[in-house]
Structure formats: structure tokens, C-alpha cells
Write a structure and sequence with these properties.
Layout lengths: L2 H33 L5 E6 L2 H12 L14 E7 L2 H13 L4 E2 L5 E2 L12 E8 L7 E10 H10 L12 H45 L10 H23 L2 H14 L3 H4 L3 H18 L4
Parallel strand pairs: 2-6
Antiparallel strand pairs: 1-2, 3-5, 4-5, 5-6
Helix pairs in contact: 4-5, 5-6, 5-9, 6-7, 6-9, 7-9
């Protein structure tokens, strides 16, 4: 392929990238309105011809038969989300909802085990159908990073290097150290968020236990046994909220499922709008952490 042929193909590739960008913006807007998360940064780029030529030349030094057809990152989209949990949740959402066809053999997850230079992030190779006839499918490399993972790329100058072998050993060690520091900060930030939500939800549920449940013991015509059962339900709700916010994996999921059942219990939602609104608000705040992308 020569430069003129590439220019003729470029608009279709730009369009494929924009399809991914528009999809991510829709998801981001929903997250913003539902969970109040910080706005995501979404960028796209199509490789310039000079960059393509340089890459082919570089690759041919190792693989003499390397050609244009083997380049997989002609179109790239990067989304910077608020946390590592949200990054994993977005990747999971795209897979489970089959938003785009994902090529697993060309996708990589560096979020848990970083690359040798310390890079963390999730790369998904998407096949995106174009909107214009003949509606061919184009490869789009989606990079999902957190704010701190993106800051690492900026601070470490990693994007100036095309190969790990080009990075001086002393600089490589410092880049990995910086990555570890920022990852620890990200973990601590996530734990602080969960602790803050847990504390606020506990206070809200305890206030409801006092004002909306136990104080009704003085009301005429209300069965004390019913109030006692409602109090136990509210305490169980608080226990499951705590379990959901301090655990992970299946334990967190089961706790959230228990919360979803409890907030439908007539003892907590019938006849008391304040209590019903409060338990729904608590469940929504937990859902923002457990599900993240919906």
C-alpha cells in the first residue's frame, strides 16, 4: 500500500474510531448521571503515514516479511476512567453485552500484572463495522486506563519508546517503581472510597432505625412484633452493606444480591416513604461500587 491508497482508506478508519468514541461517551454520560463519577477522557487517533512507514521499517529488522497488513493499531481509542475497578468493569461490560466483537488473541490485560516497564492498563482489540457501504469491519485498539495509570505514562515518558529494549535499565527500574507507587495510591484511594460510603450508609441506616422504626413503638395500633421485625431487617441490610463494601469477588456479589432482596421487603418499603427512599439510596450507592458500569 502506498500513501495515496492509505489516504483513500483513512476516512473509513476515522469513522470506525468515532463509532467507538460515541459508544464510550454514551456509557460515560450514563455513569455520570447515575453514579456521579468524574468525566471520562476519551481520545482517538489514526496513525499517520510517516508513522506507519517507520513502524514497518522497524519491524522488518526483526521480521523481514513484516508488512502493512500486519499492523493492528492503525486506529486507536483511549478512555481514561476514574478507578481500576471501573476499568475492569468497562472491559467486562463490553464483553458481556457484545458491544463490539473482541479479538481475544490480540487483547491484553496489564492491570493486575504490569508490563516489564511498569505499564498498567487494558487493551482490547475491537472489530468495528463501518457505517458506509460495503460496511467492512475495521480493527480498533481500545486502551482503558485509570487516571493514575495515565499519569504514569505521562510521567515515565514511556510513550517515547517503541520497544522495551530501547529503555535504559536504570530508567526502566525507576519507571517500575513509579508504577508501583501509583498503583498503591490507587488501591488506597479505592479503599478510602469504600470506607467513606460504608460510614455514610451506616449512619443513614442507623438514623432510620431510630426515627422510622423504633420510635414507632409509641404509636397506637402498631404491632411491636412488626416493628421488631423491621428493625432486624434494617440491621441485616446494614450487615450486608458492610459485607459488600469490605469484601470482593463472589462474596461482594452475594452481599449485593442480598441487599437487592432486602430493599424490596414490605417491612422496609410499605407505608414509610422516608425509610423506603433511604434504603433505596443506600442500595444505589453500593451498586455504584459493585456494578460500576450499567
Amino acid at each position: 500500500m502506498n500513501q495515496s491508497e492509505w489516504k483513500a482508506r483513512e476516512p473509513d478508519l476515522i469513522d470506525a474510531g468515532q463509532i467507538v468514541v460515541q459508544t464510550l461517551r454514551t456509557i460515560a454520560a450514563r455513569q455520570r448521571s447515575t453514579h456521579g463519577v468524574v468525566p471520562w477522557t476519551i481520545e482517538t487517533r489514526v496513525k499517520e503515514w510517516q508513522s506507519i512507514e517507520a513502524k514497518i521499517e522497524r519491524k522488518k529488522k526483526v521480521d523481514p516479511i513484516y508488512a502493512f497488513e500486519r499492523i493492528t493499531d492503525l486506529v486507536g481509542v483511549r478512555v481514561v476512567v476514574e478507578s481500576a475497578g471501573s476499568a475492569r468493569a468497562l472491559a467486562h461490560y463490553l464483553r458481556c453485552h457484545a458491544v463490539f466483537e473482541i479479538v481475544d488473541g490480540r487483547s491484553e490485560d496489564f492491570s493486575t500484572t504490569p508490563r516489564q516497564d511498569g505499564y498498567r492498563g487494558i487493551h482490547l482489540m475491537l472489530l468495528v463495522e463501518g457505517r458506509l457501504p460495503p460496511k467492512l469491519k475495521y480493527s480498533v485498539e481500545l486502551q482503558i486506563r485509570t487516571i493514575l495509570q495515565h499519569q504514569w505514562s505521562i510521567l515515565s515518558y514511556s510513550e517515547f519508546y517503541k520497544k522495551l529494549s530501547e529503555i535504559p535499565p536504570s530508567l526502566l527500574a525507576r519507571m517500575r517503581a513509579l508504577s508501583d507507587i501509583l498503583n498503591c495510591a490507587e488501591i488506597e484511594s479505592e479503599e478510602l472510597r469504600c470506607t467513606r460510603v460504608l460510614d455514610e450508609c451506616s449512619v443513614e441506616l442507623r438514623e432510620q432505625l431510630s426515627t422510622s422504626v423504633l420510635e414507632r413503638l409509641d404509636s397506637a395500633g402498631i404491632d411491636p412484633q412488626v416493628i421488631g421485625k423491621a428493625a432486624l431487617k434494617l440491621l441485616e441490610l446494614e450487615r450486608q452493606v458492610r459485607r459488600a463494601l469490605v469484601s470482593d469477588g463472589d462474596s461482594r456479589r452475594r452481599a449485593y444480591e442480598a441487599i437487592c432482596e432486602l430493599i424490596k421487603d414490605p417491612l422496609l418499603v410499605d407505608g414509610n416513604q422516608g425509610l423506603a427512599k433511604s434504603v433505596e439510596n443506600v442500595a444505589e450507592r453500593v451498586r455504584a461500587i459493585v456494578e460500576r458500569i450499567s
